[in-house]
């Protein structure tokens, strides 16, 4: 972004914010549920930590908020800035317009690229429309993009990209080396893969996958292609790994695990799967506390709670308040890691804020640890 003032283009389009409404539900009383419960004794909550916002998500959300403060609405964002319904609805109410492609953005307007990253073709399309852009791609995703370019252009490798075909992050990574990349959705696809040279292969992965399933896919790939090379460092995001490790510790003790996170959030969906795989008798995913079905409590003396890496802590606290209404005790936090990672804001917004006279604009998120992942 080359602008030197916070002034927006002369023509600003009006817009209407239409957040997704939450539908109230009529609940059965705590007394009714208690009469059906098949156990006696204290009802417990095991609260996984770390949980919730990671540094990359926090950075992206803060970048959009700062852009709104600096330029005023509307601010356009390609795709969802992060995969969370509450975050998207909240930003929509503030004046953000989410679009699918750059062609939907009026020429000369401000466009933010989401935390999941984009391909060079998307950036070129934005440039052709004279859009001012802020790149809020998570730095850990950018690392994978750089690896894709390096291994294909300099080392002449073919990439086996482990990830979900159609996910924004996978589309962005694939777009950095489309002629030299094969997407592998999971271990079940390994036998069908065709490669130009089995001795010049390297695997990369989407950052939000199940650690266990990714390693299973790598193992099967290596059985078929023994000379498959590993990336120089693990592509699975630290936050994804940490949240999965925490729920693995909670799950064996839980009759029910509630994962707070949206259906299109890969890491939230994986948390539900991991909870089941590691012993939870039941696991459910919800966006909001009002989606929790109190009938789940009938056989649940111990409930585990966690949230995906794009989920603000306020949504978890709403679930905990609901559980308290049904007689569950103070949450017992199960801590498996400490997190203290903060990424810098995107360079475009840092420059604009500095030119506008703002101090202390380098940080792109709020410092956190495992006990306060908000």
What can you see in these coordinates?
The active site is at 169 (proton donor). Catalyzes the conversion of 1-hydroxy-2-methyl-2-(E)-butenyl 4-diphosphate (HMBPP) into a mixture of isopentenyl diphosphate (IPP) and dimethylallyl diphosphate (DMAPP). Acts in the terminal step of the DOXP/MEP pathway for isoprenoid precursor biosynthesis. This protein is of the alpha/beta class. It has three domains: 37-53 and 238-335, 4-hydroxy-3-methylbut-2-enyl diphosphate reductase, catalytic domain (Cobalt-precorrin-4 Transmethylase, domain 1); 55-138, Rossmann fold (3-Layer(aba) Sandwich); 140-224, 4-hydroxy-3-methylbut-2-enyl diphosphate reductase, catalytic domain (Cobalt-precorrin-4 Transmethylase, domain 1, 3-Layer(aba) Sandwich), CATH 3.40.1010. 34% of the residues lie in helices and 15% in strands. The protein is built from eleven helices and twelve strands. It has helices at 30-36, 55-71, 85-94, 120-128, 139-154, 168-174, 211-224, 238-250, 266-277, 313-325, 347-355; strands at 44-49, 75-78, 96-99, 110-113, 132-135, 158-162, 181-184, 201-205, 256-260, 283-286, 302-307, 332-335. Strands 10-9-11-1-12 form a five-stranded parallel β-sheet, sandwiched between helices. The protein has a four-stranded parallel β-sheet with strand order 3-2-4-5. α8 (238-250) packs parallel to α9. The radius of gyration is 22 Å and the shape is globular. The protein starts with 29 loop residues before the first helix and ends in a 19-residue tail after the last helix. The model is unreliable at 1-17 and 365-374 (pLDDT under 50).
